[in-house]
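Teaching assistant here, posting this on the class forum so everyone can see the example we discussed in section. The complex has two components, and the goal was to see what a joint structure prediction looks like when all of them are supplied at once.
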Amino acid sequence: MSEAVWNVLADKGFGGLTLRAVAAEMGVSTGMLMHYFPAKRALIAHALDLLEKRTAERPRRERPAEGLATVRAMLLDILPLTADDTARNRIWVSSWDLALADDGLATDQADRYTRMRSALRPHLEAARGLGELPAAADPEQLAATAVAFTHGLVVQALFDPGRFPGDLQIAMLDGFLASLARPQRSGAPR
Amino acid sequence: MSEAVWNVLADKGFGGLTLRAVAAEMGVSTGMLMHYFPAKRALIAHALDLLEKRTAERPRRERPAEGLATVRAMLLDILPLTADDTARNRIWVSSWDLALADDGLATDQADRYTRMRSALRPHLEAARGLGELPAAADPEQLAATAVAFTHGLVVQALFDPGRFPGDLQIAMLDGFLASLARPQRSGAPR
């Protein structure tokens, strides 16, 4: 059943997640499915749990190094570089419509962003300590900037996969990280 | 009627856009509204047109300067710094669920991103010519990076406006632009 819910989400998003669509994907009757999901809300809750679970359990790159190399591995784990990564990202982006309209779900998403920034921050602090970032770098602000860049790239790549193949996404990430690593030039324009 | 559609979108997103919700917002019957929108699809088409129109007609900052100062003004015009900007961004992000599930709407969104990058690129080229960017900078890739950073910041700020007040969004944008402007350091980590 989870597989059917996932396939409907990857194809149609939360806007297309209905008992009828899941039943059709499973080849069962809508009535049979109502035994498990008596209301639309139960189906959505199952879908969101599934998304959290599959995100937590996704394969991740090794993080052997310190500093910016670790940040790079963490951000590569987010980008839609494989079919599975693309489906998961596509479902996350789709969930934002639902989440923005529901105070509880919006808080969950804000907390998720806080956790992402908190996970990146110690590695940005280490990068600063290693001299990979300017001494004046603010790890909390850079964590928010790195998450912003990565999620904005996810959205562009989802809409235009032909224009953003994996090697371009990786080159953009490396260019972004290299720009953070540059020493401050006096008189940068404001 | 457009005002009612806009208010429903800003509050509930495309997922909550129904004839019933718009009728309730207008204080009329759903039957009366079906005269204008015989099908849900007509209501969605009207909503998307309205979003395009209000985006095209939004007030914009003057663009007196060349190079990165112009890029800065263009990106500031995107960020959710006012209530109107916030509503418009919130509706755009909500529309992505719909757009990802519909080939025609997905192409429209990919084209919109192409236009955003094309609008930024000449100013990034000018910035390079002015010496504001490294000589090796790739304006097309930097345009995609700037759009990614800006839209990713939009999403984080929409979910957590208390954590991302306007002055922080502007500081993050200025930090991002300053990092692009730094001269390349040899041995930046990969």
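For the discussion questions: The radius of gyration of chain A is 19 Å. DSSP finds nine helices and no strands in chain A. Think about how each of these relates to the inputs above.
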